[in-house]
Amino acid sequence: MKKILTVLVVLVMVASVSFALEIGGSTATAIIGDRDVQRIEIDQEIDIDLGAVHIDVNGGVDYDLPVKNYAANYLVGASYTFSIFKVGGSIEGNRDVKLGNMKVYADIAVENVGADVDFLFSADETKDIFQGAEFSAFYNPGPFEFRVGYLWTENGAPDINAPELLTDGGLYAKAKFSY
Length: 179
What we know:
By secondary structure, the chain is mainly beta. 11% of the residues lie in helices and 61% in strands. It has 1 helix and 10 strands. Strands 1-2-3-4-5-6-7-8-9-10 form a 10-stranded antiparallel beta sheet. The radius of gyration is 19 Å and the shape is globular. The mean pLDDT is 83.
């Protein structure tokens, strides 16, 4: 009887943990260009949720068409959600700079509409510590995300929300499909 009770307790604990853990992801593709640069960006994101804690593990490849060169990058981040607010941070790097940028952010969202503010910092000793800020608004109908925003920077700092081609800042619009 004691062994059966132990097995039941373990099964209940495993069942409760499995319902609290969610794993998902998304794939985003962007084609960006002007007269100087034409680029295809492919980004893969893996999301892990455990209650109010969210963990991101992202990777991407950018392919410049005229020069036929590619760059690879990564991002690891975590956030905590309470009520309609979310706060978090991330680190990112690429093939050349292993630890490049750090981001701290705050979001507010009601249902599927919201806004966020991101502050960008650099761990690269060749750059200024403060890299800029991004302000954006989003709408998430189902698996889609539509975002418009403005990236303010003088240091050529890309962000996860803005396409990387906006190295001097500017206005952007973006669409994403998540699964």
